[in-house]
Amino acid sequence: ELQAELAQATAAADEARAEVSALRRSEAQSAVAAAAAAEEAGTHRESAAAAEEAREHARSSERALATERARVDALRADLERNDRELELLRAELAEVDSVPCLPLLRRFAPMRGRGAFSRPGGAAFGAAETLADGDGEMMMMPLRGGSVEL
């Protein structure tokens, strides 16, 4: 989602850059045209006003471009931060996945009977190997006459 926003913002920034370039060309053309018109009409004041108007429009476009650039930079920073967080989460997941479960269960499950855990009432459920395969199932472990969920 951030990459899509970044692409969109980059496209908007490119459009703004193109608009600024076009406005600068237009400003120059307007200034030349206004100067020619002023010479013909003999009014230098109109020429200066037209040129100033074109310059103001160009400044406005440059401000819009700066705003878009800031937005693109902020989106890039968010994307980089999210990438770093994702890498940290991947590292954490790899660390969790590397923990061996079966030896731990065998060590703390002395009431195993015929390869199965037993509840205090004697009812067996699930083989130790099945419960310890690391698939995230809920397990019941015997503990001093009671049981505990892991």
From TrEMBL:
Domain of life from the UniProt record: Eukaryota
Region (Disordered): 34-67
Biased composition annotated in UniProt, kind: Basic and acidic residues: 41-67
Protein name: Uncharacterized protein
